Amino acid sequence: MTNELEPTVKMAESLQEITNYLDALLFNGELPPCYVTLTRNNKVIGGYHAKDQWEGNDGQSIPEIGINSNLLVEPDPLILYNVLIHELLHLELSHKGLGGRKGYHNKEFANRCEELGLDIQVHDKDAVEGQTTGQSVSTSLRPKGLAEMAIAKIPTDLAYTAKHVIDIDSNGAPQDGEAPVLIPVKQREPKTKTAGKRTKYQCPVCGLSMWGKANAYLICGTDMQTMIES
User: Percentage of residues in the chain with pLDDT exceeding 70?
Assistant: First the structure.
C-alpha cells in the first residue's frame, strides 16, 4: 500500500500542512515543532496544548496540541480553525515563556488575540462583562480579522471529515465500539491504602495537581481531563 492510499498518513499530512500555513501567516513561521493530533475524548471540549509531552531521538522535548475530532462533524470548518489557532497561541506564548500559570489565559494571551482578530469569551463563574483573562476561556473569529483572512488564504483542506460524533464512555471506549486496550503510561507498584489517607492527583494535560481521597474521580476544570493518581 502506498502512502497515497493510507488514511493515517493523508490525514496527518493535511493537518500538518494547515498548521504550517497558520504558522507562516499568523506567527511569522516562528512556532516551535509541535505534535498535532486528533482525539475523540469528549472531556476535551475543543482542544488543548501541553508542553514537553514527547521526546525525539535527539533529546528535544516536543509539545502536543490535541483537537477534538468531533469538531470535524461541524459543517463550518472555521470552528476547527478557531480552536487550532487558540491552541497555537498557547504554544507560542509557552515557547516565549509568557504563558503564565498552567491553563490560565493571561494578559499576553488577550493581547495576542486582539492582534490576530480573535474575540474572547470568559466562562469563569466570577467573570464580569468585558473581561479578557481567566481560567476558562474560548475564542471566536472576528469578521475580517487577521485570523479569518489568513484562513481564507490556506489552499488545502483536511483529507477527511468526520461523519458522526463519537461519545467516549467512562471506560474510554466509543459507544457501540470495541473495548479499549488499556496501556499504562508508567508502571507503579500497588499502593496500600489506609482509611483517611490522601492521594495526589494530576491532570495529564496541564499538570495541575491536587490531593483527595483514594479512588476519587476528579476532573481538571481547565482541560476537562480525568485526573490520574501520581
Answer: 74
Say what the pTM is. 0.72
Q: Is residue 159, in this structure, part of any structural domain at all?
A: no
pLDDT tens profile 137-152: 999 999 999 999 999 9
Residue 101 grid cell: 500559570
If asked whether residues 105 and 205 sit together in one domain, one would say no
Q: What is the DSSP letter of 73?
A: G
Burial string for 143-175 (b: 16+ CB within 10 Å, else e) reads eebbbbebbeebeeebeeebeeebebeeeeeee
Q: Is residue 148 part of a domain?
A: yes
Residue 201 has pLDDT above 80, yes or no: no
Q: How many structural domains does the chain have?
A: 2
Q: How far apart are CA 152 and CA 56, in angstroms?
A: 33
Q: Measure the N-to-C terminal CA separation of the chain; round to a whole number of Å.
A: 42
79: domain range? 3-152
Look-up of cell digits 475530532: 69
Question: Could you say which DSSP state residue 102 is in?
Answer: T
